[in-house]
Amino acid sequence: MRAITAVALAFLFSGCSTVVPEPAETNPPTQVAQPARVNHAAEVAAIAGLIDAYEQAWLDGDADAVLDLFTGDAVLMPHHGNTPVTGKVAMRLFWWPKGADDITVTRLELEPVEVLAGGLLAFSRGRFQLAYTMDGQSFSNSGNWAMAFRKVAGQWLIARYIWNDPIADTG
Description:
- The chain is of the alpha+beta class.
- The protein has one domain (38-164): Nuclear Transport Factor 2, Chain: A.
- The protein is built from four helices and eight strands.
- Strands 4-3-8-7-6-5 form a six-stranded mixed beta sheet.
- Strand 7 and strand 8 form a beta hairpin.
- The longest helix is centred in the first third of the chain and has 20 residues, at 40-59.
- The relative contact order is 0.16.
């Protein structure tokens, strides 16, 4: 299974060459179309910029700016095995439910430890530090995260987001 996953990931991030056969009557050797050149450093920098914008939107308390960084069909896969959340409307209700206590994010640092980009898809994973206030009390947490990105109209957006962190100590 590990080999299949590795091959699938390699295919996704390879730039994917396509075989273009010549007409059957001439039957010359098969030619391989060259993929468009991708400036991987620029793509990685663009992903880093998107992650920075995500952090800043939370620190600014700007729900619209946070949601604008996601594709319309984005999926959140929350911590602790909670049910996945699909689409921006559901994401807004998940993160900013009506009638819920006001939460202010005072620190959000996503530190990427890996970024892979190729074609129209990219992936990043890392560690996060989070601090926030709710009802006058301060909380903090840390954990792991992973994001899959999709390029839409030339712009990278978050398509999938999963995070995990320790369950809060209640005792």
